[in-house]
Design goal:
The protein is mainly beta. About 10% of the residues lie in helices and about 60% in strands. It has one helix and five strands. Strands 4-3-2-1-5 form a five-stranded antiparallel β-sheet, with helices on one face. Strand 1 and strand 2 (about 25-35) form a beta hairpin. The protein starts with a helix and ends with a strand.
Length: about 70
């Protein structure tokens, strides 16, 4: 997900988020995309809601289960 329309398409869907630096000893999360305003990405994980700056995210994709 790179462009605003990619985030609009993924709203409410499960995503995988990877960060440059570890946050709470973790660099990867999975959750439901709740909001994106151009600077902040908000998603719901099993442990609660997370808000990360887009600049802290190295990669963000739709989650696929095989």
């Amino acid at each position: 997900l790179k462009r605003p329309r990619d985030f609009a398409f993924a709203m409410g869907k499960e995503i995988e988020v990877h960060t440059y630096k570890a946050i709470d000893n973790n660099k990867e999360w999975r959750g439901i995309l709740k909001a994106y305003d151009g600077k902040l990405v908000t998603f719901e994980t099993e442990t609660g809601e997370m808000v990360l700056a887009k600049s802290d995210i190295s990669k963000i994709n739709l989650a696929f289960d095989f």
